[in-house]
Amino acid sequence: MKRQYLVWYALAGAAIAVGAFLFGVSTSTILLALVVLVCPLMMFFMMGGHGGGSDHGSTDEMQHTESTGPS
């Protein structure tokens, strides 16, 4: 998840919560939905820095080592 869009995601979440409240959804239901969404959101934030350009354990490096043999 890109940090530049974080404000937009927060605004969208707040708009959904306010809209649900205005349509008569109880506060406890909205809070329960937020608690259920905490786990996937935490995974987005924790894994956000991973997978960008890390070369640790890449298959290209292993193929190069296998083709050249042991040093």
Offer a few descriptive terms.
71 residues, transmembrane helix, elongated, mainly alpha, 68% helix, single chain, 3 helices
- What is the typical, i.e. mean, pLDDT? 75
pLDDT below 50 for ≥5 consecutive residues: which ranges? none
Q: Which structural category do the helix and sheet elements fall into?
A: mainly alpha
The end-to-end distance, rounded to whole angstroms, is 41 Å
Q: How helix-rich are the residues, as a percent range?
A: 55-70%
Tell me the Rg in angstroms.
21 Å
Large-scale geometry? elongated
**How many separate helices?**
3
Biggest β-sheet: count, sense, barrel? none
Report the sheet-strand fraction.
under 5%
What is the H-and-E element order? HHH
Number of E-type strands: 0
Region (Disordered): 52-71
Protein name: DUF2933 domain-containing protein
Pfam families: DUF2933 (PF11666)
Transmembrane segments: 6-23, 30-48
